[in-house]
Design the sequence.
C-alpha cells in the first residue's frame, strides 16, 4: 500500500507545529520517514546507498537517526523513492537544519559518552518514560549528593571538574520533570520501578542516602511521577536480566524506543518485535510490585535504616 503524500505531509507538519522535538527526535523522525519510503518501494539499503555514493551502513545509520543529514543525500533519496509531491519533499527537507542542530547537552561533550548523547536527546523529547533499575536510583530521580557518589565510581570521571560537569548535566536533565502544562514541551510522565536492592546499596554516607530517600518520597507525590519498589517478596521476575528504559513520543510517526545501557556502550531498539517484549515486562513488573500507594511507606522504612 502506497502512503498518501498529503497525509504524510500533514502528519509531519502537525508534529512540527505541536512539538519542538529537539534535534535527536527530529533526526529519528526524518530517518523513520526515509525508511518507510524506501521499504514501500522495495529498495534495498545497498541500492539506496549506491544512489547517494555511500554504503548500506550509512543508510542504516540515517534511518536510525544516528547521524546528521546532508540535504543533497536526502534530496537524492526522495527522488529515488519517487516522492514527487513538492510540499511533502519540502516538509522533509525542511527538517534537516533542525535535525542537525546541537542540543543543550552538547556543551557537556567533554565528559559525555557519545552513545549517551543519543539517549539524552530522546529523553528530552519523550512524553512518557518508563524505567526499571536494579543498581542505582534512576538518574532522573537522583539527588545531587547521590549522583556525585555514583559518578565518582565511574572510570570515565577522572577529575573533580569531570564529576561536577556530569552532576550538573544530570540535574539539568531533571528540569523537564518540573515543566508545567504551558511549557513548550510539557513535563513527561515518568513511571519508575526500582528494585529493592537499590535501597540496600549505599552510595555516600547515611546523610546522602537519607536525603535520596526523602527525595524519592517527595517526587512520588508529583502528579506526573509514579514510583514502585520491586520488593524481594516478589521473588523472581522477567526483568532479572537488567535495567532498561522505554520512551514514548508525542507523535504516532515515532516508534517507542527501548534503551539498554552497558558498561561502555548502549543499545537502542525501535522495532515493535523488540520493544513489545520490554513493554510487556514493564507491565508485569508494575502489576506484581506493591502498588504506588504503598511506595511511601516502603521508603519510610528505609529512612530508619539510614537514620544514624
Sequence:
Amino acid at each position: 500500500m502506497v502512503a498518501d503524500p498529503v497525509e504524510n505531509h500533514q502528519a509531519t507538519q502537525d508534529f512540527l507545529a505541536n512539538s519542538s522535538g529537539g534535534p535527536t527526535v527530529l533526526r529519528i523522525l526524518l530517518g523513520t520517514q526515509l525508511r518507510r519510503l524506501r521499504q514501500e518501494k522495495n529498495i534495498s539499503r545497498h541500492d539506496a546507498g549506491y544512489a547517494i555514493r555511500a554504503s548500506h551502513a550509512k543508510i542504516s545509520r540515517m534511518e536510525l537517526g544516528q547521524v546528521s543529514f546532508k540535504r543533497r543525500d536526502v534530496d537524492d533519496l526522495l527522488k529515488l523513492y519517487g516522492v514527487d509531491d513538492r510540499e511533502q519533499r519540502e516538509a522533509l527537507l525542511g527538517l534537516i537544519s533542525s535535525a542537525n542542530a546541537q542540543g543543550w547537552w552538547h556543551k557537556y561533550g567533554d565528559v559525555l559518552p557519545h552513545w549517551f548523547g543519543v539517549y539524552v536527546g530522546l529523553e528530552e523529547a519523550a512524553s512518557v518514560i518508563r524505567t526499571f533499575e536494579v543498581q542505582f536510583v534512576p538518574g532522573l530521580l537522583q539527588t545531587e549528593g547521590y549522583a556525585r557518589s555514583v559518578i565518582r565510581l565511574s572510570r570515565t570521571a577522572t577529575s573533580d571538574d569531570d564529576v561536577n560537569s556530569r552532576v550538573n548535566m544530570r540535574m539539568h536533565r531533571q528540569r523537564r520533570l518540573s515543566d508545567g502544562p504551558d511549557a513548550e514541551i510539557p513535563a513527561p510522565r515518568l513511571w519508575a520501578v526500582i528494585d529493592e536492592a537499590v535501597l540496600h546499596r549505599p552510595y555516600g554516607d547515611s546523610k546522602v542516602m537519607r536525603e535520596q530517600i526523602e527525595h524519592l518520597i517527595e517526587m512520588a507525590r508529583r502528579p506526573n511521577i509514579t514510583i514502585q519498589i520491586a520488593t524481594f517478596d516478589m521473588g523472581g521476575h522477567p526483568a532479572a536480566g537488567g535495567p532498561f528504559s522505554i520512551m514514548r513520543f508525542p507523535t504516532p510517526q515515532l516508534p517507542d524506543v527501548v534503551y539498554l545501557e552497558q558498561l561502555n556502550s548502549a543499545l537502542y531498539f525501535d522495532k515493535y518485535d523488540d520493544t513489545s517484549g520490554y513493554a510487556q515486562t514493564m507491565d508485569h513488573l508494575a502489576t506484581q510490585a506493591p502498588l504506588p500507594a504503598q511506595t511511601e511507606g516502603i521508603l519510610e522504612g528505609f529512612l530508619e535504616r539510614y537514620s544514624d
Q: What stands out?
A: The chain has two domains: 5-99, 107-305. Strands lie at 128-133, 189-195, 225-230, 244-248, 257-261, 266-269. Confidence is low (pLDDT under 50) at residues 1-20. The longest strand covers residues 189-195.
